[in-house]
Design goal:
Layout (H helix, E strand, L loop, with lengths): L8 H12 L3 H14 L4 E7 L5 E6 L6 H6 L27 H7 L2 E7 L6 E7 L2 E8 L4 E7 L6 H5 L4 H18 L4 E5 L4 E5 L5 H9 L1 H5 L1 E9 L24 E9 L11 E5 L2 E2 L3 H10 L12 E6 L5 E2 L10 E2 L2 H19 L5 H9 L31 H7 L76 E6 L3 E6 L2 E6 H19 L4 E11 L2 H16 L3 E4 L4 E8 L4 H11 L4 H6 L2 H16 L9 H13 L13 E5 H7 L4
Length: about 675
């Protein structure tokens, strides 16, 4: 007997489900596309248990007659294609004919549908690919499909699903994408507990962007539009001897780009805010992403990403959408032409607009800290970060200012080559004096915490003040640095026995604050400040889902945040040092995690990520002048950290130009 046999329809459908149905969001995507192709103007999505328990989509589209409803669950049954030539000009979102049979093979499906020409609708129930019930019923025009107990008969697939909140976040992001692509349609997304998205139909994409992103983000977007005919691409034509007598050159058509791109001041940490649609199809294409990166090159940092809502329109024969089972990747017939057109269009928009940071935005960012209680010494502006009793002039600080920043050093054995810091205890507005703190923020250490002893060096020096052995290139000698000043108010220049050092003041302070936040988090002694008026932060639906997952960790880090409506958070308290715009950016940062990190993030990773974000936004910034006392404090505290090599995000803190390197440069070695 032969070994090769034909698979049953049920097994074939389950294999297809492995490609089409990756997670609950894949089911939502396929059903949403069917609703859009059916001409629906109102689409409602209901989710329970992250899509495991229930996915229900209700639309008012054209619906199906009884025979079509039954055929829709057969493999490769579709109304979108007739011949193979149709694959070259696909104008619909769904066309494979695999979605419904694949979904029905791994779930329990309940379908209710009715076409306008029928007096009665059709109800179909399917479980594991087997039809259980088919009957007529009185139904409105349109389709309602409910997918229950996803992967109930394939427990191995169910086991690999992520948490309910993670799966719901993927669904929320997907519905948001399609709501942006079709502003004229009404979209709703509801979970078991709240309405995550309710977007009424609007005439323009800009109005839909305002609905989803809010006033602030919309105000930082630039409209862009361009059109170019494909004739300029130089399409090859068949040679004369291969042309038919009635040959007529085909119309190459046009490529059109429209949408919105963000000003340079609006930056994100990942590409999750880049929305690209080709003929109204959501795509994730490396070619387009690279074109956008090139358009923003030298305008924003390479580690930052813009917010983009871009619509590409081109003849269907110029793009192949049949290259990926999930239909999220496409291939362009002329990739270089499309790439350069997108890059030049976006770049021209940025150059012509000449966007600059808004003065009012800067005023609002510095004025918002005035809503804070007077816990830090000077809540009122960027200068408040530099400690209390700051003199009005920018000259040499007063004696009181210097005394304030002198630190009381812990009792340690005397060490040659190390600076001594002694002075009055630091008082930062609390009831009891503090022995050590952060003059840049007005922080005090947690109760019960004992600062680690500074690193002690035992370098031996001869009478000629030259080291007998060249010191190793480590950061343990940071405590012996003597500051010389700042380079453009951003980098600290300092020297010691080992040579010349350049220290990035922002990342140095970020490392200090990161380790302090982690220590205070462990002993649950995080210092927080209450706001006189709650700060309202608008979020995307996916970010609201992410907030529900990390709300407990935010509270342990000094936040007091609670939902204020379906897509708004009210911040009532925050860690000391976070104020105004920095506080809002920090919350947006921790709620916008790339998918690959979100899938593998554990409790410790989440704790460190939040602590790193708090430290980054509370740290002293570049282009901020610091007097010598503050610089000395920063270098001393940096020497006490456990890992002074880099900031929590991996950027180096200090660069050393050793004495030996200096001698070699002057040809004295």
């Amino acid at each position: 007997m032969g070994r090769i046999r034909i698979l049953s329809d049920q097994v074939a459908n389950q294999i297809a489900a492995g490609e089409v149905v990756e997670r609950p969001a894949s089911v939502v995507k396929e059903l949403l596309e069917n609703s859009i192709d059916a001409g629906a103007t109102r689409i409602r999505v209901e989710i329970e248990a992250g899509g495991r328990k229930l996915i229900r989509i209700v639309d008012n589209g054209s619906g199906m007659v009884r025979d079509d409803a039954l055929l829709a669950f057969e493999r490769h049954a579709t109304s979108k294609l007739r011949t193979s030539d149709d694959l070259l000009s696909i104008a619909t979102l769904g066309f494979r004919g695999e979605a419904l049979p694949s979904i029905a093979s791994v779930a329990r499906v309940h379908l209710e549908t009715r076409a306008a020409e029928d007096d009665a609708g059709t109800v179909i129930e399917i479980a594991g690919g087997s039809i259980l019930r088919v009957e007529d019923a009185g139904l409105p025009v349109g389709t309602t499909i409910a997918v229950k107990d996803l992967f109930y008969n394939t427990p191995a697939r169910r086991k690999f699903l992520k948490s309910e909140q993670t799966e719901l976040a993927h669904i929320a992001a997907l519905v948001t994408h399609y709501a942006l692509a079709h502003p004229e349609k009404h979209f709703e997304l509801h979970s078991a507990t709240q309405a995550l998205l309710v977007a009424a139909g609007v005439p323009h994409a800009g109005d839909r962007m305002f609905q989803i992103f809010g006033r602030e983000t919309t105000g930082l977007m630039l409209p862009t539009a361009a059109e170019l005919d494909f004739a300029r691409a130089g399409l090859p034509e068949p040679p004369p001897w291969k042309r038919e007598e009635d040959y007529v050159a085909a119309d190459p058509g046009y490529i059109r780009v429209s949408g919105f791109v963000s000003k340079p001041e609006l930056q994100k940490l990942n590409r999750n805010s880049v929305y690209v649609f080709v003929n109204q199809r959501l795509i994730r294409d490396r070619l387009v992403l690279h074109a956008l990166t090139e358009a923003y090159r030298n305008i924003i940092p390479p580690t930052s990403f813009p917010v983009v809502l871009l619509f590409l329109e081109m003849p269907p024969q110029e793009v192949d959408v049949n290259v990926h089972p999930a239909k999220t990747e496409v291939r362009f017939r002329q990739p270089s032409f499309v790439h350069d057109f997108i890059r030049d269009t976006v770049r021209t928009t940025l150059v012509q607009a000449r966007p600059a940071a808004s003065f009012m935005a800067a005023v609002e960012g510095s004025a918002s800290p005035s809503l804070l209680l007077d816990v830090s010494p000077l809540p009122g502006g960027p200068e408040a970060f530099l400690g209390p009793n700051r003199p009005e002039s920018e000259g040499d600080p007063s004696r009181g200012d210097v005394d304030f920043f002198r630190l009381k050093s812990p009792v340690v054995p005397a060490s040659p080559g190390r600076l001594e810091f002694a002075g009055a205890p630091l008082a930062v507005g609390y009831d009891e004096p503090v022995s050590a703190g952060d003059p840049l923020l007005g922080l005090k250490p947690a109760a019960g915490y004992e600062a680690p002893a500074p690193v002690v060096r035992n370098d031996r020096w001869n009478e000629g003040s030259r080291p007998m052995v060249e010191p190793e290139g480590t950061l343990e000698s940071l405590g012996s640095l003597k500051s010389l000043g700042q380079i453009r108010d951003s980098f600290i220049l300092a020297v010691n026995e080992e040579g010349l050092w350049i220290v990035d003041q922002h990342v140095a302070h970020e490392r200090i604050l990161f380790e302090r936040v982690m220590r205070e988090r462990e002993v649950e002694q995080v210092q927080r400040q209450r706001l006189l008026m709650p700060m309202l932060v608008d979020l995307l639906p996916a970010q609201m889902v992410a907030f529900a997952e990390i709300a407990a960790e935010l509270e342990r880090n000094g936040f007091e945040v609670e939902p204020f409506g379906p897509r708004t958070l009210a911040v009532k308290a925050a860690p000391v040092g976070l104020e105004g715009r920095e506080l809002e950016q920090m919350l947006e940062e921790v709620l916008s995690v790339p998918d690959r990190e979100q899938q593998s993030e554990n409790a410790d990773t989440r704790r460190r990520r939040i602590a790193a974000s708090i430290a980054c936004h509370a740290a002293v910034k570049i282009n901020m002048p610091l007097d010598s006392a503050k610089i000395d404090w920063l270098l001393t505290e940096l020497a006490k950290t456990e890992h002074p090599t880099s900031c929590p995000h991996g950027r180096p803190i200090a660069l050393r130009y050793s004495h030996k390197d200096i001698q070699r440069a002057f040809q004295r070695s």
